Predict the structure.
Amino acid sequence: MHQLWPVPADPTSSGPLTDADLERIYAYPAGLTRPWVQANFVSSADGAVTVSDRSEGLSHPADKRIFALGRDLADVVLVGAGTVKAENYRGARAGERRVERRRRLGLADVPPIAVVTGRCTIEPDDLIVTDTTVPPIILTTEAASAGRRAALADAGAEVVVAGEHGVDVKAALDVLAARGLYRVNCEGGPHLFATLVAEDLVDQLCLTLAPLLAGAGADRIVTGRATDVPRRMELASLLHEDGFTMLRYRRAVRED
């Protein structure tokens, strides 16, 4: 993986980026006192978020490296129930590299996964509940079935009500912050991302563009709730490998 922009301090150093380089580039801001939300997506060059209803067909080892790094640097992974179901999510793995990196950075060995599900559609026997080293946090609503909520709690999940009829993402982030989980890595899906954009809660977008034309049919990385005004972002870095482009956008600084 090579860096195209910004130009490295030593332009004569054209070798591939090391893990230390990537940690520096993708690091969360220091001294956070509020939830800081990063969204992580892969898309085809013509804007499709999936191939055959899954993101795997758009991926590449370089993209997977950035995806894993997103989990390694985060306090918590935030994801919508639709993505959990479609991608057959499990809990984050406590691999040797992950544990070493996270301990070195003062983080827990693995981040919990927080699932946004207004109707509490996660089942007690889903892998996100049964195949994990830390309990998932299920962010749901008062309107969700009390029986479903109780069954998930009995299965070991932490069930949190954050909204009456729909999940209030601001309240959900406050719940995570109250647990000291400020570094939030959102892995989708498009409907959750649309809500975060509409609520102006996205601080950073990590977007991999695959050199592929998927054609019509698939969703974009954002779909569902409309945004009243566009959210201004600034390009922070641009990496590439084998035709795949890893873009990182940060929230633009507002001018008074």
About this structure: The radius of gyration is 18 Å.
